[in-house]
Amino acid sequence: MTADTHPDLPAPNSEATIGFIGAGNMASAIIAGLISANWPAHKIYASNPSLPKLERLTQKFNIKTTQSNQALAEQVDILVLAVKPQKLADVCSQIKSVDLSHKLIISVAAGWPIQRIEQNLQQQLAVVRTMPNTPAFVGEGASGLFANSRVNQQQKRITETIFNAIGTTSWIAAEAQMDTVTAIAGSSPAYFFLMMESMITAAVQAGMSEKTAFELITQAMKGAATLAQSTPNKSLEQLRKEVTSPGGTTAAAIASFKSNEFEDIVRKAVDASIQRGKELGQLN
Ligand SMILES: NC(=O)c1ccc[n+]([C@@H]2O[C@H](COP(=O)([O-])OP(=O)(O)OC[C@H]3O[C@@H](n4cnc5c(N)ncnc54)[C@H](OP(=O)(O)O)[C@@H]3O)[C@@H](O)[C@H]2O)c1
């Protein structure tokens, strides 16, 4: 897997229309990113069963909306499936009569293999399966992308443009690795939140105000990630050792982590997430 960061977004394909089935949190985040990246609003569509979400999107971004998934699927060149996994079978049965063979299908639905999407749509299609994460809501997402063999280079580039609008993108070599993407990127903001919550609890117990602890800890985590990304010539181990003077305060904390088998705790958690992803994939 290679991280592929594009600070300068390529110009969106001004000819392409993009439509989102499901106008919830993830669709709204991607639409906001596309608008910021100068994708023409009149080439963005969204469909949703209830009106309020569509009205909000129209008011905020002036995009086109409809309550008909079928009308949207007929209209657009790029179709983003942005409903909860348990709703995807219904959506597929509503749009399967539309000829989707010349369109790019992008799924953000967790746990749905591409083959199952094609089976439900009863067509062989160019499909990209993606797994973004919640930092996408502030333009700092990390999205894993997997394309089937029918997706061409231009469609890959346009997928990168779309997901680079909400953060960074990494192409995944094998679809089976999407469960790992979920475990280390889709779910991992929660692990980092847990780490920060635990550190705030410790700081408050040591007498610090929660507000000050929050400010220091969130900035330290953000700063550590930025430092790691901006010094690719140094390994994470090297960066860690640079903070860790022998016999010092950091060394005491690291020794405590190690004696409590921190690495084993993390490995087991990631394995548990991968395993659960596989189970959910079979249930869908
Ligand atoms: N949020 C994340 O962090 C995240 C990360 C990675 C992937 N994803 C994936 O992104 C997808 C969407 O997640 P989300 O967080 O955006 O969920 P969400 O906020 O609940 O949005 C889903 C939207 O789909 C609409 N919907 C339900 N049935 C529909 C139908 N038959 N046709 C069209 N629209 C329909 C819902 O409308 P109503 O509310 O009116 O029913 C809702 O607006 C999920 O598959 C999830 O696995 C989410």
TrEMBL record:
Listed under catalytic activity are: L-proline + NAD(+) = (S)-1-pyrroline-5-carboxylate + NADH + 2 H(+); L-proline + NADP(+) = (S)-1-pyrroline-5-carboxylate + NADPH + 2 H(+)
* Binding residue positions for NADPH: N69
| GO BP terms in the entry | L-proline biosynthetic process
Tell me the pathway: Amino-acid biosynthesis; L-proline biosynthesis; L-proline from L-glutamate 5-semialdehyde: step 1/1
What residue stretches are annotated with the Pyrroline-5-carboxylate reductase dimerisation domain? 175-280
Give the highest taxon in the source lineage.
Bacteria
Q: Which UniProt keywords apply?
A: Amino-acid biosynthesis, Cytoplasm, NADP, Oxidoreductase, Proline biosynthesis
Q: Which residues form the Pyrroline-5-carboxylate reductase catalytic N-terminal domain?
A: 17-111
Q: Record's family?
A: Belongs to the pyrroline-5-carboxylate reductase family.
- Name of the protein this chain belongs to: Pyrroline-5-carboxylate reductase
Which source organism does the UniProt entry give? Aliikangiella marina
